[in-house]
Amino acid sequence: MSARDVESRPSPIAGLGLFAKREFAPSERIAPYSGPTTSEPPSEAFSGGKVYALEITPGRWLDGASADNPARHANHACHPNAELIWHEEETMAWLTALRPIAAAEEITFDYGFSLAESLFHPCACRSADCVGRIIAAPLRPALRRHLRFSRPRD
Ligand SMILES: [Zn+2]
User: Fold this and answer.
1) From the CA of 144, how far away is ligand 1's center (Å)?
2) Class (C level, CATH) for 6-110
């Protein structure tokens, strides 16, 4: 990965996004997601209310909030083109292509939020079947049920 491979710029999904500056092949590393590891979850307030902390293993977090970590700009999408993979031997996570990615395409991955977290984080990925919340793919059916149960009755 070099500085020419990705860039941060305004995204139609949310805020700044991370964009490919060249093509990526499936399984290719796109950008490192770097930062210090901690034994306590970094506070959201510290990073301006945004969530940049990954739970690598139970009780161990990677705080990606640093300006030295451009990959922190990667947005969530319901059909992401990348995934974030932890490499224990390098003590580093890598955004890695899930499928072929075109130059200028926005890099997205599944933030993997819980049902509770999803209620505070709307998704605007614009896919036809966007569930409207940032939530881990396996939990989406549960979210749909949750929203159905929550509908006001008349
Ligand atoms: Zn979505």
Assistant:
1) 13
2) mainly beta
